[in-house]
Amino acid sequence: MMRSLWTAASGMTGQQFNIDTIANNLANVNTTGFKKSRVDFQDLLYQSVRHAGAPVTDGAQIPTGLQMGHGVRVVATQKIFTQGTFRQTDNPFDLVIENDGFFQILLPDGTIAYTRDGAFKKDGTGRLVTSDGFFLEPEIVIPDDALEVTIGTDGTVSVTLPGDPEPQYIGQIELARFINPAGLQSYGRNLYLATASSGPPIVGTPGLDGFGMITQGWIEMSNVQVVEEMVNMITSQRAYEVNSKAIQASDDMLQTANNLRR
């Protein structure tokens, strides 16, 4: 059986995975805080028929080797954590991180997850939560009678209460960052989990020690560029087609060989 059949088939499989990733990026073009993914490919094993540098006669060596490749495989999907565009909402519970950092979210099992989605809400007890009801960590509780909520660029949360013109401090929002954010595990619901590859979280105050500042009344949109994804989709589609042509050519050659008569 011809190697080209399996080699081209691996190319079609890889491009199908690439299209699936591009489709997910485009599906999340309006997802708050979403970060696009990129597929990384790697060539497969090579069969060495003749090694470069092998001696042929006294003082003479083969200048180039003879190797046969066996196709391609998907080796990684990498999250690209470039900053998305900002959109003003004037909602006091919408927060955006300018530059590096993640909000910390407490999951029901006690695990801390991380997100760039700052579209927070207030639950029935006044605590700031995500759209799924997961608590912001550290916990921030807004009093029922608060007239105004102010969140500073350093994450300090203050409220104005009836009969008191002076804002009252009620809590501090802390951010986390990672040495290798691309190593974070996507959890869904706009959340990420720390892994051994991402390294442990480094927690700190917004605006200090490399952390981004927080801006109230804004949210971060997806960093997906539709035109770029469309170009990638066309490129992947053409690569898929050319691999299918290689399979068709191999099939035609096998058919010719099968039709040979003595």
Write structural notes for this entry.
This protein has 262 residues and is α+β, with helices and mostly antiparallel strands. It has 2 domains: 3-55 and 64-81 and 224-258, no CATH class; 89-218, no CATH class. It has helices at 3-27, 226-258; strands at residues 37-43, 46-50, 55-57, 60-61, 66-69, 72-79, 86-88, 95-98, 102-106, 112-115, 121-122, 128-129, 135-137, 148-151, 156-161, 164-172, 175-177, 185-188, 191-193, 202-204, 213-216, 218-220. A hairpin with a 2-residue loop joins strand 3 (55-57) and strand 4 (60-61). The strands form 9 sheets. Strands 9, 10, 13, 17 and 20 form a 5-stranded antiparallel beta sheet that branches. It has a 3-stranded antiparallel beta sheet with strand order 14-15-16, with no helix packed on it. It has a two-stranded antiparallel sheet with strand order 1-6. The mean pLDDT is 92.
